[in-house]
Structure formats: structure tokens, C-alpha cells
From TrEMBL:
Keywords: ATP-binding, Membrane, Nucleotide-binding, Repeat, TPR repeat, Transmembrane, Transmembrane helix. One of its GO terms (cellular component) is membrane. It comes from the Bacteria. It comes from Thiothrix fructosivorans. It is found in: Membrane. GO terms for molecular function: ATP binding. ATP binds at D45, G46, N47, G48, W49, T50, S51, R52, Y77, Y78. It is a single-pass membrane protein. Residues 1-99 form the Fido domain. This is Fic family protein. Gene3D superfamilies: Fido-like domain (1.10.3290.10).
């Protein structure tokens, strides 16, 4: 995105978050926060890191563990994110993030001695 459009895009993003985001399931909200923020690309560097931090903040605020995307899922992640941005089709990205969130519970189940 051109730098000239970033302030309005960020204002629109915050407006969406304040009015519509809370109506979504927390996992979908977290994924969309990540996807829309990184799409705006407001910083010269660190947009991916920041967007994943925002995603995990949303997850943790809702009582979910942080979602950590493994190296093995990196290509799937980039392809799903590209599909969301280029075709406005968030389904593959939401499916991926939901699966990663489910996997993020594994250390807790192990610590509790629960077989998932």
C-alpha cells in the first residue's frame, strides 16, 4: 500500500475493529486482525511480526493460547494469506489459523496429562 493511504487504511481498520470485529468468533477475529493489519503494511519493517503479535493478543484476550505457525506450515500460511488479500477469500487462512490454535493447546493437554 502506498504510504499516502496508510493513515486512512489504519483509521478504517480501527473503525472495523471497534464496530464489527467483536461480533466474530475470537479465532476468526484474531485471524482477520492479523490479515488486515499486514495487508495495510504500515511499517517499513516488522509488519509480519506485529500482525502475528496482534493476532496472539486477540487470542489470549479471549482465553486461547498463542498460535505459533511452524516452519512446516510457512508455505501454506503465505498462500492462504495471499488468497485472502488478492481474492478476498479468507476461508483457507481462517482454516489454517483455527488448526494452528487447536495445535497450540497440545502442550497444555500434555502438562495436564490429558490425551487430546
Amino acid at each position: 500500500m502506498e504510504a499516502l493511504h496508510v493513515p486512512q487504511a489504519m483509521a478504517d481498520f480501527i473503525g472495523w475493529y471497534d464496530t464489527q470485529a467483536m461480533q466474530l468468533h475470537p479465532v476468526e477475529r484474531a485471524a482477520r486482525v492479523h490479515g488486515e493489519f499486514v495487508k495495510i503494511h504500515p511499517f517499513v519493517d516488522g509488519n509480519g511480526w506485529t500482525s502475528r503479535l496482534l493476532m496472539n493478543l486477540e487470542l489470549m484476550k479471549a482465553g486461547f493460547p498463542a498460535a505459533v505457525l511452524s516452519v512446516q506450515r510457512r508455505l501454506e500460511y503465505y498462500e492462504a494469506l495471499d488468497r485472502a488479500h488478492c481474492h478476498d477469500d479468507y476461508a483457507p487462512f481462517l482454516t489454517l489459523i483455527a488448526a494452528v490454535v487447536v495445535e497450540s493447546f497440545d502442550p497444555y493437554w500434555w502438562a495436564l496429562g490429558v490425551k487430546a
